[in-house]
Amino acid sequence: MNDDLVKLTIDGIEVDVPKGTLVVDAAKKIHVDIPVFCYHPKLEPVGMCRMCLVEIGLPMRDRGTGELLLDDDGSPKLNFGRGLQTGCTVRVSEGMVVRTTTEPVKEVREDVISFLLSSHPLDCPICDKGGECPLQNLTMEYGPGVSQMDYSLKMHNEKQVPLGDLIYLDRERCIQCARCIRFQEEIVDDPVIQFHNRGRALEIVTMSEPGFDSYWSGNTTDICPVGALTSSDFRFGARPWELTPVPSLSPHSPAGANIVMSTRREAKSGGRSVIKRIVPRQNEWVNEIWISDRDRFVHHFADAPDRLQKPLIRKNGELTEVSWDEALDLVAEKLQAHSTAVAGLSGDRLSNEDLYAFQHLFRRGLGSNNLDLANRRLAGGDVTAQVGLASGSNLQDLGAGDAILVVASDLHEEEPIWWLRVKQASERGATLVVLNLRPTRLDKYADYVFRYAPGEAIVTVRQLVNAAKVETDTAVDQLTAAADTLIKANNLVAFYGYEGLTYTETDTLAKLLANLLLLKNEDKAHAGQINSGLIPVWPHNNSQGAWDMGIHPALAAGYQPVEASGMDAATIYEAVHNGGLKALYVMGADPVGDGRMPNRGQLDFLVVQELFLTETAKLADVVLPAQSWAEREGTFTSGERRVQRYYQAISPLGECRPDWQIAAQIGERLDMGKPAFAASLLFRDLAKVVPQYKGMDYRSLAKVAEQWPLVGGDDVYYGGTSYKNEAGLGQQWAAAAETDEVGLFEVADGDTAVTTNLPLVRIAALYTPGTLINHTPMLADRLAAPTLHLYADDAQIIGLQDGGETVIQVNGRSLSVQVCVNGHAPAGLALLSGVPWFPGMAEFEIL
Amino acid sequence: MFGEILRGLGTTFKHMLQPPVTIQYPEIKRPVRPRFKGRHVLERYDNGLERCIGCALCAAACPADAIFVEASENTDEERYSPGERYASTYEINMLRCIFCGYCEDACPTQAIVLKHNYEMSFYDRTSAIYTKEKLLVDLAEGAEPAPRQVEPGTYDRAIPEMEDPV
Amino acid sequence: MTFTEKYAAEIEGIMARFPHKKSAVLPLMHLAQHYYGYMSREAMEEVAAILDLDPTHILSLAGFYTLYYEEPVGTYVLEICNDLACALRGADEFVEMACDKLGVGVDGTTEDGLFTIKTVMCLAACDRAPMLQCNLKFEENLDEEKFEQLIARLRDEAANGRTPPTVVEKVAAYAKSTS
To answer: Of B72, B84, B108, which is closest to A160 when you measure between CB atoms?
Structure first.
């Protein structure tokens, strides 16, 4: 018998569960429902609501001998104590007998429900939770059926209390379970909501500015067992039973957060089905049952009224609506005519299918390798292909004995899901080492924090890696100690980002970290092991896919080197300016708006494929309207190299077409054959070409497994309204190190020299204004305004004050910014948030 | 035999003298029973505010899927109903409706009521969709129209107080 | 001057007594309340900043404990017990009468800033209800007449400049004495 298992009997069913399991969880595992309100399987139990009271009997033992006392029939004598016990706080023990359906249990459940309802307003008909409400469901199932309460005696409290712009509180509906408060404290460490007052006067309050200032606030509406917390996005949007749930992926999350879009046809939108809300979809390997507010609320762009709906061609200087055939014919003709001087730029928000079709058009149809991401920030996709996080890994499994290294990234602002998972790993005992220019929110959980000076990122990481190479027993300094922990850790995961780094520096950084992972400790390297490997903190949801699909001047799909490298983005912009290029095809990117390309230069022909009439599109000769991710299906690949599917949620807007189809239809006009009939077939084709995706198809990506905790459906009272994953967990592709020997990388020298006293670095903010996020009205007040963060002494030297406004000149553009002197910036470094990304460190002047 | 003929004619004459059952519809209309389930109306409170709170329980109860509701939030500047929420779109497809009255049963505010009007004929399918404007009853004399501006705090309940909740 | 600046030494002294920073929250709140007269927003934010807590946490504590006041209070805080036992002896009517007499509601302060009426949970003097505590001093077996006398006496006291320490001062002193 396994020592870690405990045998107990619940309602006559024998069950073996791990030691330390709570009685409610043990029961849930054999699908016996013990109703709960305050308990949540992801939170520490508190036993506040008393709904889970059950009869718990323990076998009696002789006090002298310790022998089990037996009944006449030979079965152990049980001691049920004098009362009922809360199943959510009692842990299982050997021989325990739990009864959940006896009369006393039923009676107490009726009483608890009656008590909770004594103050509950019963406004279920207009409550957003009505229909998926644990209180409603459990009342129907376990309630007394009639009320002893005179309706007119109910307590009345304030009903519409906005806790900020995102979450509404209804004080009457709250049953004081504290799930929301505990979630904010225990899980995401943003304790910005608390109880205030006592007894019936108890209410949830926030003092933060803006109210309920947390990137995770939306999750509290999922786990609230009543309609006390509801989101402003879904407020009165529809009744839950009217919604069609469509599994999808966040179009922003490089970690690949799984979501469900609840859609409904809407009269206001002329009968189109629209996205009414976004809720998490369980994927314990990716986002568990949480999503950040960005993933939850930034979807309004898909239904925005200013979306492009018809192809446009510039006629007499004006963009004019035309038919698809006319537009595609013109594009094909012009691209072919200029095929020696043509280039393609793409965004990395698009699906693998789009990106594959795009590069296929260029490489096969036009014979050009002038292909790149319009705004390439982070190198190392090729390195990740070698030593990336091994397939089968789950960051949830990291704990004591493991180590995590985070370099040059502010995970909390760039990808909150990863921040959360790293934080939780650290709380489970993993050693966390953080290297950055400046303090970030990860420092609080780190065992080692190293702050390098501007221009010394690579040097510092190199020191760390070199220190790891040397076997030491007595660490001479913190860095050696950290290096020693990293190399000796059971598992090592290294995250790296691009804060303050140029593209070349990130490449060096990736290789240095790869070498760290390839270092052998007792003949075993971390690279290739499950739960170890490299994770690039990509800027967008499918940056990894862009590497895999070969949106790269030198690497074709599947990282196959091309014979002659084409132009990279920087060279393309140069060539646009000096006439080296005649035609440019931009898909899902806005180089003009991002400040990378000042104008259309000497281009003869510019075609832009987009959702909106961006700055680049305004200059184009042809504008092709693309479908947003919600209107079609496809796949994204996360930074952990998990290929995941998303599904069509809403009907296509106007005449928009999927990006891959547009590229393929242009290809058709260049004699490349018929476009694929569906995204699934195109994926099958690309899986044949990209070796890493071998064996994957839409069916294999849709495979699911049972996950814990149970959520949604009948278990909505237990795990919350997150959706059960019935649409696929995705597949992680194997890094080379898992199967082959990977040699150390050659690493180029050093950092770019810093030439200024006060270099300026762009830092990430989750709500950085942009084309997509600007369409979400409820986030308008939270958008990060351009802000210059300075160290107090530096601010004094250049004569700026906290809270002031100024205009600065940076990278040739003038920008009006707010000044913030509150300790974010270290001495000798200026930080700029809320602006589009620029590489490395910049000089700036105050105008 | 003659007697039998006379008896038969007697019946005939008796019925000849009785008033006719048929009526001259549409000039004359037969009154319906009090519980007759005819065309729906959306009721108002005496003060003119709409009773409907846009809860869509009627749509959920409807076995023919004939009702479509979309809700929006009331504000004190533009108030339709006393609660937090009102129906911004309310449509009944009368071609689908089977006049079962389940919607009436489901309604928590007695907003939707099947009244006695049975005269519904359409020239095309779209006019069979009765919108909120068509369904709402006329304002009582002297009542203020909705939406209207009200003093903040006048209506602070999520749904109006129910008279006799079960 | 903020309270953090003025009481730097005291704050340090209080913090030194506890192994965990967070444990110093209640005495610091008393100190802050003493300085500001009540738990103002600044008071909460300052205490939170000293202890690295979220200000909402301080607000929560101020709401939980009855001797932290989130609104400015009068010279005399009349805390009337209206818990069950007292209610059975007419505390509710007494509260109503007291409010009428002073022309304020529960939690209200008279215009001259002298009296604040509050209702509190059990003060352990059920047998002598209706009762109240005036700046922490019990007044028992009250009725309308005795209440009027009490008010008259306190008004007289205040008019002659013989005001005793306020409840905030008393609480702060007590917190200090027990530390």
So the answer is: B84
Query: What's the CATH code of the domain at A814?
Result: 2.40.40.20
CA distance linking residue A428 with residue A402, whole number of Å: 10
pLDDT tens profile C34-91: 999 999 999 999 999 999 999 999 999 999 998 899 999 999 999 999 999 999 999 9
Same domain, A577 and A522: no
**Minimum CA–CA partner of A129 in chain B:** B55
What is the assigned CATH class of domain C3-70?
mainly alpha
Q: Is A235 exposed, middle or buried (0-12, 13-18, 19+ CB in 10 A)?
A: middle
- Distance (Å, rounded) from C-alpha A228 to C-alpha A130? 11
| Cα–Cα nearest to C118, from C67, C80, C168 | C80
Residues A271 and A320 in one domain: no
Quick one: A632 and A590 in the same domain? yes
Yes or no, beta carbons of B108 and A242 under 8 Å apart? no
Dist CA A708 CA A311 (whole Å): 47
The beta-carbon neighbor of A236 closest among B73, B156, B162 is B73
Q: Which residue of C has its CA nearest to A195?
A: C60
Residue ranges of domains in chain C = 3-70, 76-165
Q: Provide the 10 A C-beta neighbour count for residue A322.
A: 18
Which of A236, A239, A263, A273 to mutate against chain B (most B CBs within 10 Å)?
Answer: A236
Report strand pairing: C76-81 vs A53-59. unpaired
Domain of A39: which CATH number?
3.10.20.740
Q: How confident is the model at residue B166 (pLDDT cuts 50, 70, 90)?
A: very low
CA distance A178 to chain C (A): 13
Token pair belonging to A516: 């760290």
Chain A residues with CB under 8 Å of B67 CB are none
Which residue segment(s) compose the domain that A28 sits in? 5-101
**Domain termination residue (choose one: A269, A303, A337):** A303
Residues A298 and A323 in one domain: no
**Which of A163, A167, A194, A443 to mutate to test binding with chain C, by most C CBs within 10 Å of its CB?**
A194
Segments making up each domain of chain B, as ranges: 32-135
Chain B residue numbers with beta carbons less than 8 Å from the beta carbon of A121 are 158
Question: What distance in Å separates the CA atoms of residue A619 and residue A638, rounded to the nearest whole number?
Answer: 33
* Contact between chains at A194 and C56 (C-beta distance less than 8 A): yes
Nearest to A236 among B57, B72, B91 (CB): B72
Q: Is the pLDDT of residue B162 over 70?
A: no
Chains with at least 3 CB pairs less than 8 angstroms from chain A: B, C
Distance (Å, whole) CA B122 – CA B120: 7
> What pLDDT is attached to residue A125?
92
Of A245, A280, A303, the domain-final residue: A303
Sites in chain A below the pLDDT cut of 50: none
Global pTM?
A: 0.94
What is the assigned CATH class of domain C76-165? alpha beta
One domain, residues A449 and A510: yes
State the pLDDT at residue A463.
93
For strands A524-525 and A520-521, give the pairing: antiparallel
CATH 3.30.70.3270, applies to B32-135: yes
Domain count, chain A: 5
Q: Which of A439-443, A829-833, B29-33, B154-158 has the lowest mean pLDDT?
A: B154-158
**Interface chains of chain B (3 or more CB pairs under 8 Å):** A
Residue A97 contacts B, CB cutoff 8 Å: no
Q: Rounded to an integer, what distance in angstroms lies between the CA atom of residue A616 and that of residue A623?
A: 10
3-state secondary structure of A439: coil
C60: closest chain A residue by CA: A196
The verdict on A394 and A372 lying in the same domain is: no
Q: Is C90 left (phi over 0), alpha (psi -120 to 50) or beta?
A: left
Residue A713 falls inside a structural domain? no
Q: Which CATH number belongs to the domain containing residue A548 in this structure? A: 3.40.50.740
Chain A CB contacts of C22 under 8 Å are none
